[in-house]
Specification:
The protein has a 7-stranded mixed sheet with strand order 7-2-1-8-9-13-12. A two-stranded antiparallel ribbon has the order 3-6. Strands 4-5 form a two-stranded antiparallel sheet. Helix content is about 35%, strand content about 15%. The protein is globular and about 65 Å long. The protein is α/β, with parallel strands linked by helices. The chain folds into 2 domains: about 230 residues, Vaccinia Virus protein VP39 (Rossmann fold, 3-Layer(aba) Sandwich); about 120 residues, no CATH class.
Length: about 400
């Protein structure tokens, strides 16, 4: 039975925070990514504000949480991003090959692989320090053979990206590299020092074997699932005409936060595999400590999204508070006051979502943790005034699968 719309909007975070910590399809953890909101949040809003068959869009798709949740719930999931890494991860989760197809492709790649035919002499020293010669040759071969425009290859690329670097546990390596200090790539000089201080030895692992093992844990569909798509796009520019025609019922997204770390810089290993450089990627992405510039950025983004979202649809921006001096800036409120209100959006509420201490990105900076956000705020909007539907608490005991998404 649904709860009436008198349900306090400020209590909405209790809905997704009540879910189990590890709730969600295994594909969500295919590859780590900065500033990723939990799949429980995306699941709740998709379930609450859309119906099966409708479209859901994230213009800053990151690791593809929103598009994947949309697909799993029988919606069309769309995701775009200016970061090629994000596009690969989102594409892998919206156009999911069958396990059988993936295994056949991997077998063909392994059959065609010859260590003597692959040179690693010209690979950067920063890459060579992470992998044994055997492992690096396999990675270089896969890097040369896989085509990200092919759905099957794109899925394998995304899987490899999630395993390029990882720490180790008692059962052995969880990735292909030496045991890394974090799930993201610290600066090359820092990593080199870390390797020397800990006397780390590059592990001799078989990439093909580890990929097969990883595939067994991903609960893939028995037939290819084409539930949406992903593409490279700058959200400050006009959306593609086909998306405007689709009129997504819901847009859920987390725009870049103000004065945070750069996505390219801390993904330099993954970008190497994609044939990209961190400096080139960071030039494409919004990263500024200027509030004025940020508000101008959001003005362009929100104006474009108003042309995309359905007239009876909704937009949810997830925007984190930012520490400026001794104070926390309520950035979501600033975006509403200075940008969205003047564009004619209808505001349903600005909802505070306290980030649990053990899940804050701030833990990676130790004594400099003040740089990270402590509170996310959700701006819930619609292009025209309308009543919100009843809040129906989701059942977190239900396990989503691609089989159910088809039904």
């Amino acid at each position: 039975m649904g709860v009436s719309t008198s349900y306090p909007i400020q209590d909405l975070p209790l809905q997704w925070r009540s879910a189990p910590r590890r709730w969600g399809h295994p594909l969500h953890s295919l590859c780590s990514y900065f500033a990723m909101f939990p799949p429980q949040l995306a699941h709740f809003f998709i379930d609450w504000l859309t119906e099966p068959g409708e479209s859901v869009y994230d213009p800053f798709s990151g690791r593809g949480t929103v598009p994947l949740e949309a697909v799993l719930q029988g919606r069309r999931g769309y995701g775009s991003d200016a970061n090629p890494l994000a596009v690969v991860l989102s594409q892998a989760k919206t156009r999911v090959p069958s396990k059988r197809t993936l295994l056949k492709r991997l077998a063909d790649l392994e059959t065609g692989y010859s260590p003597r035919a692959v040179s690693i002499a010209n690979e950067p020293a920063n890459i060579s320090m992470l992998y044994s010669n055997k492992t690096l040759r396999q990675l270089v071969w896969l890097k040369e053979q896989l085509d990200r425009t092919n759905d099957t290859d794109c899925f394998w690329i995304a899987t490899i990206l999630g395993m390029l670097h990882a720490n180790h546990n008692k059962s052995g390596p969880r990735g292909f590299s030496i045991s890394m200090p974090n799930t993201f790539a610290m600066a090359p000089g820092y990593v080199a020092k870390y390797i020397a201080e800990h006397g780390l030895v590059r592990p001799e692992v078989d990439v093909f074997a580890m990929l097969r093992t990883r595939l067994d844990r991903l609960e893939l569909p028995t037939a290819k699932r084409e539930g949406g798509r992903s593409w490279v796009h700058d959200a400050t520019t006009t959306a593609p005409p086909w998306l405007v025609q689709r009129r997504p019922k819901l847009i859920v997204t987390s725009p870049p936060y103000l004065q945070v770390i750069k996505y390219g810089k801390y993904n330099w290993v993954r970008l190497w595999f994609l044939g990209e450089t961190s400096s080139d990627v960071d030039k494409r992405l919004m990263a500024s400590a200027s509030l004025t510039r940020y508000l101008e950025f959001m003005e362009s983004v929100s104006a474009n999204l108003k042309q995309v979202v359905a007239e009876d649809g909704y937009v949810c921006f997830v925007i984190g508070d930012v520490r400026r001096g001794d104070d926390d800036l309520n950035l979501a409120q600033a975006v509403w006051d200075e940008v969205l209100q003047g564009q004619g959006w209808h505001l349903h509420g600005i909802i505070a979502d306290e980030i649990p201490q053990d899940r804050k990105v701030s833990r990676i900076w130790k004594n400099n943790s003040g740089r990270a956000t402590k509170v996310d705020r959700l701006l819930l909007l619609s292009p025209t005034p309308q009543k919100l539907p009843d809040v129906v608490p989701p059942s977190w005991t239900q396990k989503l699968s691609f089989a159910k998404a088809h039904s």
